[in-house]
Amino acid sequence: MPWPARDRAHPRSRPAALGLGGPARTDSEITACRHDQLTAHLRAAGLGAIADLGFVGLDDSGPDTGPAVITGYKAARNRPLTRGQKLSNTALAAVRAPVEHGFAHLKNWRVLGKVRTDPTWATALVRALLVLTNREVSR
User: How far apart are CA 67 and CA 51, in angstroms?
Assistant: First the structure.
């Protein structure tokens, strides 16, 4: 099943591309992002991304550069989150909520699970479905 490129589900935004697999099966999205060198592409385009806790460690940029991928903070059993880290996680969750809702609504279009075509056409399909989904949700 294709995994969509993470993008804002805002009516004025568009997904950059749709990943339809690679040279081998990957067990996680972070592995696929590392294989596709997502952070290098984001930096080259002057963009950034906000991701969930599954992507912690994806952006291994140095202290001199700004992050290309912003994630929240994970708590450990012996190290609870500080108040500032909890506030940061809450702010990131508020920004990510509309995105997650948009992708949840996209899953209603069952045709996406059966896409076996050129990635360019599939990206155009997802863009069209995002428009229809945003229109349906806004009603």
Answer: 12
